[in-house]
Amino acid sequence: MARGLFILFEGCDRSGKTTQSTRLVEALNSQGIRAKLLKFPDRTTAIGKMIDGYLTQQNKLSDEAVHLLFSANRWEVMEQMRADLESGTTLIVDRYAFSGVAFSAAKKLDFKWCKAPDVGLLAPDRVFFMDIHPDDAAKREGYGDEIYEKREFQIEVRVKFFTMMDNSWSIVDANKDKDEIHRQIMALTSKAFAKHNEAESPIKKLWT
Ligand code: 2DT
User: Fold this and answer.
1) Which entry of 20, 83, 93, 115 is 20 to 30 Å from 204 by CA?
2) What local confidence, expressed as pLDDT, does residue 106 receive?
3) pTM of the entire structure?
4) Which residues contact 114 (CB under 8 A, 6 or more apart)?
5) Which segments of the chain have a pLDDT < 70?
6) Residue of 103, 150, 96 lying closest to 126 (CA atoms)
C-alpha cells in the first residue's frame, strides 16, 4: 500500500491556514482519499496546555523554554504521525517546525539553536506557504488577541519563513478569494499525489 502524503500549511497569523487546511481534508475525504487534519500547537496535551497559557498571556515562560515546549509538542505525536503515513493516511498539518523556527528566530534567538530540537522530525512532502502581508492580516477578524499578533513582529516572522524555503514549498497568495485559493491548493495537491504515485519516496527527516 502507498504511504500517505505529508502536506503542511505554514504562514503568518490570520493567513487562512486553518480554513484552507480544513477544506483540503474535507475535499480529499470526499474523493475517497483518507486524510487527517493535525494542528500545531496541539493545545489539548499537557505540554499544549502550557503553550496555550503562554500564548493567551496567562503564564510567562522564557523564549527558550517555550521554544522547546513547541518542539516537544511535535515530538509527542511523531510516532503516531509515522504510523498514520505508513498505513496510507495523508496528513494535512496546520503549522509545524518552520513556525517554531520563524517565531523564535524573530525574537532574535539564534537560528541554528532554534532548528536543533526539531532535527529528525518527519519532514513534509509539500509545504503551502499562505502569504499575506501583516498589514492585510491585521484587518482580519480577531487579530491581536494573542501574544504574537503585532505588526512589526509578524513582518520579521515572514522574513524568517522566506529564508527556510526550498523547492518543496509553494507560495500561495492568501489575499485572493477563498474559493480561488482552495482551487489552487487542490491543483497543487493533485500534482503532489501524481508525483508520489509515480515514484514513492521514503518519508524524509527534517534538517538532516
Ligand atoms: P495558532 O494561532 O496557529 O494556534 O498558533 N508558534 C507555533 C510558535 O511560536 N512555535 C511553534 O512551533 C508553533 C507551531 C505561531 C499559535 C502561535 O504559536 C506560534 C502562532
Assistant:
1) 20
2) 97
3) 0.97
4) 67, 100, 101, 104, 105
5) none
6) 96
The Cα–Cα gap between 167 and 17 comes to: 20
pLDDT in tens, 50-63: 999 999 999 999 99
Q: 95 CB less than 6 Å from ligand 1?
A: yes
Distance 142 CA to ligand 1 centre (A): 16
pLDDT at 144: 79
| Residue 144: domain span | 6-198
User: What DSSP state is assigned to residue 116?
Assistant: G
Domain count, the chain: 1
Give residue 55's pLDDT.
95
Q: What is the CA(114)–ligand 1 centre distance, in A?
A: 14
CB 17 within 8 A of CB 132: no
CATH number reported for the structural domain that contains residue 111 in this entry: 3.40.50.300
**What 3-state class would DSSP assign to 101?**
helix
